[in-house]
Amino acid sequence: MYRLLILKRRIEGIFIFPFAFIGRLIAYFRPLSEEYDLFLIFPFYHVGGAEKVHSDIARLFPDKRVAIFFTRRSRNDAMLPLFQAPNIRWYDISAYTGSKWLYPLNLIYRGIVAGYINRQKKAPVVFNGQSNFAYKLSPHLRRDIRQVELIHSFCSFSYIRIPFLPFYSTSVMISRDAICTHLELYRRYRIPAAYAECIQLIMNGIPLPEDTSPLAGDTALLYVGRGTSEKRPQLVARIAAKLGVKAGFLGLAEGDMPAFLHPYCVFYGLQSDPVVIDRIYRQHRVVTITSSREGFPMVIMEGMARGLAVLATDVGDIPYHVQNGLNGGLLDHTRAEEEIVQQAAAQLGDWLAHPAQLQAIARNNIAYAREHFGMEAFARAYRKLLIS
């Protein structure tokens, strides 16, 4: 299978060449006005866990010149300020690369961006934050330009990236579960073992709060994130409804929530101010994940760092960090949704009836987060990888 995908990529390259050549000509006559050490290619800058990680990575290199290309149309610009700094120049090319109706422009822009990067006097490093455009761009870059990819979880990109593996020196993955799943895929597709050796684990990190004291609030659960199908935020509202309490929703979940569940919900909407986000976290006691699949969500790190118990499905790397009774409760993701709701409601009801359990979990989680989730190791690993 791997050899067939490589052959397919090469055949496609023949048809793409004229478009990419036009793009390189455009870049030749209209080059970038500055030299850059790092080129970061990301799909979006809207609210999301992956986007938060990407912004953290972008700001790790204040002593380097950084160019960022955003290749897909973002749903909002709430997180765009997090990608801005004096040493960073960002370009939103999604109008040309993010539309299937303008696909020839996507092909031309592969040549344009390749021309920008290839014409740098000193070979830069190119970092692909799970961008389809960046994978398709990779064959057009000079061979002395080091390319690094970041894979957040096992998903469609796990297959898209296969024919482009020869162009990447390092494949960063954020969880042990993701690495194991990808290694199994490598075996099934007969991908050369050398590419398995290119995988590197770098866990995400967060700024640890100094003040972790709980604030008064009238909601029992907190959900943070989008309202997409695999996240299943409706289950969080159903858990709250089962106990007659309320759940808070930080992010874009309101539009996907059935009207009959709204009485059990408090919608905070999109928030980008760290002070507001911190306050919302500390007004709750339990952070809830009901996903059918995950890597290791940032929300768990952010919640544990503030003393919230974790009530989550046992997917991805969550079971590596959450133990029943010690710092939260695990839900069996293989069960039917109604069973998951019942299991979660029973656990939450027990905690609410015995507040001392939540207080003990809060102490355990704050200590655990300080030991495992700080930004220091995250920053050290990425700086060593991208600029050493």
Can you describe what's shown?
- By secondary structure, the protein is an alpha/beta fold.
- It folds into 2 domains: 2-205 and 375-387, Glycogen Phosphorylase B (Rossmann fold, 3-Layer(aba) Sandwich), CATH 3.40.50.2000; 221-372, Glycogen Phosphorylase B (Rossmann fold).
- It contains 15 helices and 13 strands.
- The protein has helices at 2-29, 49-58, 94-97, 103-118, 132-137, 157-160, 176-188, 193-196, 233-243, 274-282, 298-305, 318-321, 337-353, 355-372, 375-387; strands spanning 38-42, 66-70, 88-92, 125-128, 146-151, 170-173, 199-201, 221-224, 247-250, 265-269, 286-289, 309-313, 328-331.
- The strands form 2 sheets. It has a 7-stranded parallel beta sheet.
- Strand 5 (146-151), helix 6 and strand 6 (170-173) form a beta-alpha-beta unit.
- Helix 1 (2-29) packs across helix 4 (103-118), helix 9 crosses helix 13 and helix 11 (298-305) packs across helix 14 (355-372).
- The protein is elongated.
- The protein starts with a helix and ends with a helix.
- The mean pLDDT is 94.
So, CATH architecture of the largest domain? 3-Layer(aba) Sandwich
> How many β-strand stretches?
13
Order of helices and strands: HEHEEHHEHEHEHHEEHEEHEHEHEHHH
Proportion of beta-strand residues: 5-15%
CATH homologous superfamily annotation of the largest domain: Glycogen Phosphorylase B
Helix coverage percent of residues?
A: 40-55%
Text of the CATH class of the largest domain: Alpha Beta
Instruction: Please indicate the count of domains.
Output: 2
Cross-sheet strand order for the largest sheet: 3-2-1-4-5-6-7
Low-confidence stretches: none
By helix and strand content, what is the structural category? alpha/beta
Average pLDDT taken over every residue: 94
Q: Which of globular, elongated, flat, extended, rod-shaped describes the shape? A: elongated
Biggest sheet features = 7 strands, parallel
Using the CA coordinates, give the radius of gyration.
Answer: 22 Å
Distance between the termini: 35 Å
CATH topology group of the largest domain: Rossmann fold
Count of alpha and pi helical runs: 15
